[in-house]
Amino acid sequence: MTLAHSGSALRAEALKGHAAMLLFSASVAGSFSLGAMVANDIEPAALNALRFLITAVILAGLTTVLGSRGYRRADFRAPWRYLLLGTIFAGYFVLMFEALKTASPVSAGAVFTLTPLMTAGFGWLLLRQVLNGWMALALAIGAGGAVWVIFDGDLGALMSFQLGRGEAIYFVGCVFHAAFTPLLRRLNRGEPALVMTSLLMAAGCVVLVIYGWRDLDAIDWASLPPLVWIALAYLALAANALTVVLLQFAGQRLPSSKVMAYTYLTPAWIILWELALGHGGPGLLVLPGIALIAVALVMLLRND
Question: Which of 3, 72, 118, 228 is least buried, going by the fewest C-beta atoms within 10 A?
């Protein structure tokens, strides 16, 4: 293969990674709007235990029926990998839904846009991926836009650091998410995306059932609002199964910092979701922050 052909093939693979992350960002955004609508109807650990169970079963079926090779004995080497990844991913979602009890979807989405900066740090620690000056500047601009949206453009609240409880809780969850992306790449030993995702989801489900057993036992299943079941189906299929596969697919083709750059689209997608659901849009004061986030995304993808 010539150098030109090799370069074209690499670019084609990179473009596939970008397409995957575009779909990822739209799918993730829906979980904020739907999650906020049901966050007070069911405890986070119980909701996420169910979604992880559904996701694990669906992915196991797809791996067996549609997978190019199914499961192999080698896939179960070092099962601690799946337990670690599943625990981190489960912890992120539990904290997210706890946060959405009080935080607005748009402000929570803005907190989520801080993950690229944190992911870059974990990418260096785990994969020795080094940021250049341009990408560091882009991440800083994006973080500045996120902070603006989180504080609703209120300089007084920013100066006194009046951070909402929900936003603070979700920030901790985003630290988990930032570590998850490079860890997924570091711990993969050649397993296909469906195989690894199904196993980490199964491990995460076990962790959530143990942690949230009391909440699961206390649920009055018959009295749950229909919206909870609708949200559960979306979360299990789109915001869990699909996004983890997309994340792993893109993570094998793009640097961790560029993979997470697409989180900068999350607030914009959430605004569209909120408008579509009839919840209205954010105030005009947050628009400068959204603009900075958009600038950061363009900067991070400039070379592609």
Answer: 3
Here the tokens at position 255 are 């640097």
Residue 98 has pLDDT above 90, yes or no: yes
pTM: 0.81
260 within 8 A of 116, measured Cβ to Cβ = yes
Report DSSP letters for 113-147, one per residue: TTHHHHHHHHHHHHH-----HHHHHHHHHHHHHHH
Residue 114: domain span:
28-300
Residue 221 lies in a domain: yes
User: Is residue 15 one of the residues assigned to a domain?
Assistant: no
Region 67-73: mean pLDDT is: 78
* Strand, coil or helix: 45: helix
Residue 9 forms part of a structural domain: no
Exposure string of 50-70, with b = 16+ CB inside 10 Å and e = fewer, is bbbbbbbebbbeebeeebeee
CA dihedral 75, 17, 233, 266 (to 10 degrees): 130
Residue keyed to tokens 């993808």: 301
CA-to-CA dists, residue 80 to 132, 148, 187, angstroms: 34, 39, 10
Q: According to the model, what pLDDT value does residue 234 have?
A: 92
In a domain, 225, yes or no: yes
The band of 125, judged by pLDDT with boundaries at 50, 70 and 90, is confident
pLDDT higher than 80, residue 159: no
Q: CA 143 to CA 114: how far, in whole Å?
A: 6
- Is 13 in contact with 253 (CB distance < 8 Å)? yes
Instruction: Count other Cβ atoms within 10 Å, centred on residue 170.
Output: 30
Residue 303: its H or E element: none
pLDDT digits (tens, 9 = 90+) for 219-228: 888 888 999 9
